[in-house]
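User: My collaborator sent over this chain with a note saying "see what the structure looks like." That's all I know about it. Can you take a look?
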Amino acid sequence: MKRIITICLFLISFNISSQKWINDSNCDAQSYEILNEALNHLSNLEQLTAVGMAKAAKISDSGCECANLVIASTAATTQWGSRKAKLDNINVQLLSDEEKAWYDLLVETTKGDENNWDSVYASALEKFPNSPLINWVGIRGFNWDGYMDYSKKFPNNASSAYNMIAYGYARGEYGDEPDFESAYEAIKKSQELHKGPNSIDSSAEIASLEGDYEKALTNQLKAVDYAFFSSPYWDRAVTYGRTLNKKAITENLQQAQKNIQKAILDRNIEEFKKYVSPEMPLISGDSNLQEFYEFTDASFARQTNINWDSFDLRDIEVNFSPDMTMAILTFYADGSYTQGDSEDSIAYSTRASSVWVATNNGWKTVHTNWAPYGGGSGIPKN
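Assistant: Without extra context I'll predict from the sequence alone. Here is the result:
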């Protein structure tokens, strides 16, 4: 087992970059190299890889305590998060002064006192003005000038800075208007310094901002390909794919709305089940304006005294959520019906809306709401 671990560490170190994030560390030479690679992934928001590299550094040198700081930094600071617990287990005596400065800053993030964090950071920066890590953690939010200044001061560590600058250009927040040429140039600089999925994910998002969803999907799938299983980049790939096919999805949903309504009128349970999910009930509000209810198989068994002469849906509009996981349909229904043994025809006219959600088994409807419209009637209260 020890031999296998040694071989794995050799392969890791063989591919390590030359970027140094901490100038003074108590880790041994090999673990120090792996630690810096972990920090490189951490700065590029590739946290799962960062944790793996940090654990590799600990395997190489059990005294490389800064590796535990990397792991703690990826944990949540919320009440249910484990960052505080992980920091409490840090052996501070094994940290260098520079690493201790980062430790103090991480501790402050668990207290929720931003003013005190600023004070601790100012002290850390004064002690370690040439530390790439300390300088990096001080740039917060959309401080575009801060990222640009960092890229000039620490050009070898600027992959994540260039990645952020790209967003500033693409959104028109760094400059007078969106500049996609400069955004892609910044992404290129980022990728020259660090080969990882985050910058590819960013290039996909920038393409989506430009409206080029084919390019966005192509790039996003490259990010997913870094580690397909449970990839954090998969959701956006799905979003871009659906956006690219929005017209077809729209037409399918329009037809699905007609199909499910026909299945209800025909009391065709099997057809109805194609458009609902067993995990999410269909909540409906009828045009008689009575209480909302859950539409189930039992609803098909209810007795009714309505005899439909005609029922047609028209003007179905489809609007999607930004992530393309939900669609709201609005439409109108016209028709006529008789009640019981009466031959008197009642004009039916309603406006309606429905909510559809994307699932692993296709789009399913979870809510419909109907109301009388245009002088016509809805269904009777019974």
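A starting point for your reply to your collaborator: DSSP finds 16 helices and six strands in the chain.
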